[in-house]
Amino acid sequence: MSAPTRKRRWFTICAITATAALVAVPAGAAAGPDGGPFGARALARLAAERGQSVGAARPEAKAEDDGGGGDGGDDGNEADEIAEGADQYAEARTSPGVVAPGAYGAAWTDLTNLPSTGGRWRNVTDLPYNSDDPRYRDYDSNSSGGSGNVTGRMAAMAADDDGYVYAGSAGGGVWRSRTGGGHWQPISDRLPSQSTGALALDGTGRLWLGTGEATTNADAYLGSGVYVLSDPHHGTFATRSRVGGDELESTTIHELRFGGGKVWAATSEGVWSHSTKKLTGAWKLEFAPNPDYLPGGSLANDASAAYKNIANDIAIDPKDPSKVVLAVGWRSGDDYNGFYTKGSDGTWTRITSGLGDLPADADDVGNVTFARSADGSRYYAIDQSPEQLNTNPDSGLEGIYVSKSGSPTGPWTKIADYQGLAADGSALTSSGYMPGVQAWYNQFLAVDPANAEHVYAGLEEVYETRDGGTSWSTVGPYWNFGFPCWSIDPAKQTGDCSQTTHSDQHGVAIGSYHGRSFVYVGNDGGAYRRPLDGSQDASGHATDWTSLNDGTIDTLQYYSVGVGKDLAYGGVSVTGGLQDNGQSILRSNDKVMGSDFGGDGGDTLTDPANGCNIAEEYVYLAVQVTQNCAVNDGSWVTDPSRITSYNVAPADNATGEARFIAPITADAKNSSTWIAGGRHIWVQTHGYAIRSGDEWTSVYDLGAGRTATAVAASGGKVYAAWCGPCNNQGFARGISVGNADGTGWHDITLPGTGADGTVPNRYLAGFAVDPKNADHVFLAVNGFSRHWTEGPGAGVGHVFESTDGGTTWKDISKNLPDVPTNSAVVTPNGGLAVATDLGVVYRAPGRTTWKRVGSLPAVAVLQLKLSPDGRTLYAATHGRGIYTTDVRDCH
Questions:
Q1: Which of these, 126, 121, 124, 123, lies nearest to 889 by C-alpha position?
Q2: Using an 8 Å Cβ cutoff, are 370 and 445 in contact?
Q3: Edge-to-edge order in the sheet of strand 284-287
Q4: Do residues 884 and 124 make contact, with C-beta atoms less than 8 angstroms apart?
Q5: Low-confidence ranges of the chain (pLDDT < 70)
Q6: What is the C-alpha to C-alpha distance for residues 731 and 741, in angstroms, rounded to an integer?
Q7: Is the bond preceding residue 96 a cis peptide, omega within 30 degrees?
Q8: How, if at all, do strands 516-523 and 505-513 pair?
C-alpha cells in the first residue's frame, strides 16, 4: 500500500482559484497533478490511493491469504491513515499475542507504588495553540483553514443547563468548565485510565464516565471500567467511584445509555448493564455475539478476538424501557454484525425484517450511533456500512435515518446519504474523500430537546437539519479551503470565511449557559460550541462557532518533541508532532503556540544550536525541513520562490515501506548526519540544508516485509530495530547494526523465545546510546511481558543494556512495572530515563532499581529529549501535552 496522505494540505484543484497560475516550483516542493505546489499533501492524492484500496479483503481473509505474513491484523480495508496508524499503534503494544484484561491497571498500581524522585513536572504547552497562526502560512501548513485554537482529540461531551460542560479526551482524561466552556479543570487525574469512551449525565445529575476510547483508533487505550460522579459540579473522579467490579476493565466503551433503572454499556466485549441505584455488585453481560472470544473463553487468545464482540450503541424505547435494540458490529465487517432485540423467550436475536430503510444485512451494519428526541416522538440513527467501506472509495456511510414512530424497532426512513450531504455545503466534494469516508471513526448525533426535528449529526464535518432531515446544512465544514470566501491573507484568520470546527467529530452535547442554549461538539481538535439555533451564511455554514480550547485544557497528543536554542528571543524553542494537529512550535517569547506544519505530525528533529532548523515527519517518512521555523506570510501562493519548507522524503515514503510513525534521528556527535528508517536504513549528511529526497543514501536493506521501529546513531555507529511481520500473524523482530558510511552492516542474533533474560520477541521501540561510548546502548521494549501477553516468545522485561555494540543484551528491568516502554535517554550524569505508557521512570547512575519521576496522570509518554544544555528533560505525552523537569532533581 502506498503511503496515504490524509489532510495535510488543502485541495489541489481549488485552493488558488483566485490567483494566477503557479509556475516554477522550488526544489523539494513536488508538484501536484495540476501543476500546483501541493505535492504529497494533496487530498486528491489520498483520494486516488484510497480508490486503489477498495475491494481489499477483510482482516480475517487477508491473514489467511498471506499465510500469516500480512501487514496488519485488522487493516486492508482503508487506505485512510487513521486506520493504518491505529493498527500499527496497537501492534506495538499487543504483538505477538493478545493482552489479557487488567494489564494496565496492574501496571498503574505498580508504578504508583514505586519510590519517587525529587522534582516536579511542569507543563509547557498549557497555553492556546492556534492552528491558524498567521505567522506560519508556509507550503505545508494548514493555517487559515479555520479551526482556530485546538487541543487534542475529544471523544465525548456532556453538558447541563447550569453552564457546566464536561469534555472527555482520548488520552488526557475528563475536564470540567463552569462557564459554558473554557477555564477548564481536570477531574479524572486519579484514575488509572485517562482514555475516555463515553460521558453521560443521568436524570439525577450524576456524571457517568466510561473509560477506554472506542473509535477503534488504537492510539488511545483500553479503559478501567465505568465511574460515576455524584456531584460533578464540584467533585472529582476517584477509583472508589467505579461501578461494579472489574468486568469492564481492559475494554473500550462506545456509549452509556439509561432506561428501566439500568445503565447500559456498549463495549468492545459486548453489551452490559448495571443498576443505577445500587452501584456495587457485578455488571451483567446482556449480550455478546461470540462469547467464546471473551476473556476466559476457549478462543480468547485468537488473533481476531478483539473484533468479535464489538457493540456500538443501545436504543431504549422511551415508551417501554423493556424494548431495547442493540447495534452490534465490527466496522470492517463480520457475520455477527446487525441489530438485535430480546425475544419473548428472553434471548437476543437479530432483527431480520421490519426495519424499513435501515439495513438488516450484516454487510451493511457497521459502526452505529443512536439519538432520540426528548418527547419520545423520534429516534435517529447513523449507520456505517462495511460493504461501502470495502467497495466505495468515496464514503463508508450507509445513511442517516429516522424512526418517526419513536420506537427503535422502526420502521426507519433514510433522510441523508453521502451524496446529499456533499451537495449541502460540504467541503468534501472530491471523489475519493466525501462525507462519511471515515464514518467508522467519527460519528455523533444529538436532538434539540425542544424540537424533535432539529438534529445535529457529526461525521468528518458537522451537519444540521431543522426539518427532520428533509434538508441539511454543513454548519461545520471540514475546513474553509476551496470556498470562495477563503483567502490566505495573514491579516485574517481564514479570509472572509467564518471560523469552522476542527474536522473528525466524536462527541456532542446540548446545554445552557446564562439561559442560552448551546451545542457542544468534540473532535480531533478539541471542543467547540455554537448557539443551538445559530446563524448560517448563504452556503449553510455556521457563522458563530467558538473554540473552547483556551489553553487551560491541554490534551494534545504528541508523538515527538524537539528542543533547540531560540536565537531570536533567547531561551529555547520547543516543537513536536501531534495526532491530527500538525506540528506545534513554541518560541521562548510566545504566549500562543503556532502550527507550522499541518495534518499528523510524527517524529521530529530539531537543531540544538538553532531551534528554527526543524525536520518534521508527516507519516510514513514524509519528511519536511525548514530553516526558519516555517515562518511565512503565505505569499508563496503567488510567488513559489517564497516557500521555505521542503519535502525531503527518502524513497521508502513513495513505496509505502515505512511505518506510520517512522523513526528519524541525528547522529549524537554530528547533527548534520541523519538516519531514517523504513525498509531501508537511510543516511543523509547535509543536515538541515537538505532540499531533496534524492540526497538520502540507502546504507542497508532490512529485507522485504521488514520496517524499522527505532534508529539511533553516535559517532557514525548506527543501531536499527525492526519488525516484520509486525502483527500477531508471524510476528518477528530484530536489530541491525552498522556504520553511517554503509560499512559493517549485519543483523544481531537475537534468540527467538525471549526466555532467560534475552530480548523478548516483542516490538522494539527505542534506543539510548551512551554519549561517552557508542558501544554502550540501552533498548526500550514495548508490549507487556509473558504474564499478560499470550503469544509466542513474548518474554519478560522492558529495558535492556548492551556494552558490546548490541551483540549481547542484559535485562535491567528489575523493579520496573510491567508496562510498555517507548523511549529512553541517557542523562548527563549517566542516569537513564525511560518513557512508558503510564509515565516516566529513572535509574540513577550506579543503581539497579527504578524510581518514578514526579507525578504525571496515567498518560502515555512516547518520547523523551534533553534540552541543549542537558539540564532539562522534555516528555512528549500522548494526551497531556509536553512536560519538563529538571534533570538534577532526578535522583
A1: 121
A2: yes
A3: 253-259, 262-267, 270-275, 284-287
A4: yes
A5: 1-83, 216-221, 752-757, 790-793
A6: 30
A7: yes
A8: antiparallel
pTM, whole model, 2 decimals?
0.91
DSSP letter, residue 397: E
Cell numbers at residue 486, please?
Answer: 477563503
Phi, psi angle pair for 453, to nearest 5°: -105, 5
* pLDDT at residue number 493: 86
Whether the CB-CB separation of 610 and 564 falls below 8 Å is answered with yes
Confidence at residue 753, expressed as pLDDT on a 0 to 100 scale: 55
Contact 395, 388 (CB under 8 A): yes
Which pLDDT score is estimated for 248? 94
Q: Other CB atoms closer than 10 Å to residue 95's CB: what's the count?
A: 29
Q: Which three cell numbers stand for residue 844?
A: 540513577
Q: Which residues contact 463 (CB under 8 A, 6 or more apart)?
A: 416, 421, 424, 435, 456, 457, 472, 473, 474, 475, 476
Are the beta carbons of 318 and 301 closer than 8 angstroms?
A: no
Helices (H), 774-834: none
Judge whether 427 and 483 are in contact, CB under 8 Å: yes
CA distance 268 to 282: 17
For the record, the C-alpha cell of 850 comes out as 527504578
- In whole angstroms, what is the distance from residue 218 CA to residue 237 CA? 24
CA angle (647, 650, 652) in 5-degree steps? 125
Provide, for the chain, the percentages of residues in helix, strand and coil under a 3-state DSSP scheme, each rounded to the nearest 5. 10, 35, 55
Q: What pLDDT digit, counting tens, does each position of 647-685 carry?
A: 999 999 999 999 999 999 999 999 999 999 999 999 999
pLDDT at 398: 98
Query: Could you please report the per-residue DSSP string of 722-737?
Result: EESS-SSSS--EEEEE
Gap between the Cα atoms of 587 and 568, Å rounded: 9
| All three cell numbers of 106 | 496492574
Beta carbons of 113 and 106 less than 8 angstroms apart: no
